[in-house]
Amino acid sequence: MRRAIDPAVATLSDGDRAAASAVIWQRIGEVDAANTAYVKSILPADGWFRSRRDGADVARNAWLIVQHSPDQAFQRVVVTRMRPLVASGDARGPDYALLYDRTEMFAGRPQLYGSQMTCVSGRWQAAQTVDPASLDRRRADMGLPPMAEYLKNFEGGC
Q1: Helices (H), the chain
Q2: What is the pTM of this model?
Q3: Where are the domains of the chain?
Q4: Which of 23, 68, 128, 151 has minimal CB crowding within 10 Å?
């Protein structure tokens, strides 16, 4: 649904685009909440999905639901449970990094991996980040590309 928004509203007038986008985002929020409830209902007894035990697709899809969840408290719980799984290879480093940054940004703190963007004067830029000088090293540790490469994904205006 998220990928369909821009093409779906591209030919609309500004007012119609804003109205249509609001309706679409409301529906996306409803789907995100329902998906979050579902993931909570199927959580393994040990707290989170493991790539080797549950399958890489299951672990990745569950993470994707949590990444877009409206339940920030649940996001914080999951990111804590994922951290040791990254070290053991049962969770993807990039997934952990994106969720970690999102929880920090929502808490009003600087992010660690530079994955979350903010719109400034019509351009995307990384939200506040801890120690930018060592950012690419931290990104590499989590399997993320260098920041200059990542920023190419956000070259369009916002």
Answers
A1: 2-9, 14-42, 51-54, 56-67, 72-88, 93-106, 135-141, 147-151
A2: 0.89
A3: 43-109
A4: 23
